[in-house]
Write the structure tokens for this entry.
Amino acid sequence: MTLLSPIDGLVDKLRDQGFKITHPRYQVIERVADRDANFTAEELAAELAPVGRATVYRTIKLLVDQGLLCRVVLGDGSICYRSSHLAHHHHLVCLSCGATEDVHLSDVEAVIDRVRGATSYEVVSHRIEVYGFCPRCKGFQSEADITHLHLH
Amino acid sequence: MTLLSPIDGLVDKLRDQGFKITHPRYQVIERVADRDANFTAEELAAELAPVGRATVYRTIKLLVDQGLLCRVVLGDGSICYRSSHLAHHHHLVCLSCGATEDVHLSDVEAVIDRVRGATSYEVVSHRIEVYGFCPRCKGFQSEADITHLHLH
DNA sequence: GCAAGGATGAGACTCCATCTCAATAAGTTA
DNA sequence: TAACTTATTGAGATGGAGTCTCATCCTTGC
């Protein structure tokens, strides 16, 4: 609060874009900026209880649009968020507990470029989620959990 | 109906696994098997009107579990389905009209293998969606559409 | 055929997210 | 500092997607 925190950067960036920094908005940013685990919109709304749900959802969307948060698609298709470190990266997602980690797939760009050359689509982006079991969940998964994973 | 259609293979496969081939179930399979475009669960339920919504959803899940359909995550996070050709592949998704195409990213496996070696996770699967604009939508997208694409 | 048990379907329900709109507060200007 | 403009808020309604319940029905194996 006294010295420059990473939050200040975000706040300034938003203000520069003409967004007002209201109390509720600030609270959301504060909660989200320093967080290393992922979280759902609903969790965040519950934590910030006095702040309206609609506002939490709106602010999350704002932060995603600004690239300060990124959406993660879990194995079951549900959505959660992670604070983004802005560099392009992808996610490693635990199928059991839902934990996430960032992963840098350095060679992927080359692969995507090859798609760009081979298709009539104008390729602008991509999303990659790598699924597995985190160190703590490894060894606990049942066969059944794995059999219906056709994440083509 | 008379000669062996691709549907028969699917039906047999399901029957072998102990699933009953009921009329509603057969209708869903029929509608889904020969389709080359993607579709949402709700669309399918509407088309097969007399078949109950719950049954359509249940059957879709069954077919996904069996690897006969695959889920596609569109740019906005919504879900649709495509008939799977069983070989592992990924999707090219139009951000404008939502059209999809299969794409085979042959080198991706090597990249994922590198993740496998570098992480403490037990990697079992991955999902890749490549986003862009299809030939028909190319040139129509506004800048605004592209600016909030942070699909890390 | 018949019996057994999986499958169906109408409708209620849950969950997530967005919308509405009157009230509020941030930032700006004087 | 006060007034003003306009974006933002929040309670609650609404929408959409998917699941659940449970009595009834139908496939399948015998």
Notes: Chain B touches chain A through 52 residues (CB under 8 Å). Residues 53-65 of chain B form the longest helix (13 residues). Residues 15, 20-23, 40-42, 53-54, 57-58, 78-79 of chain B lie near DNA strand D (CB under 10 Å from a C1'). The two ends of chain B are 46 Å apart (CA to CA).
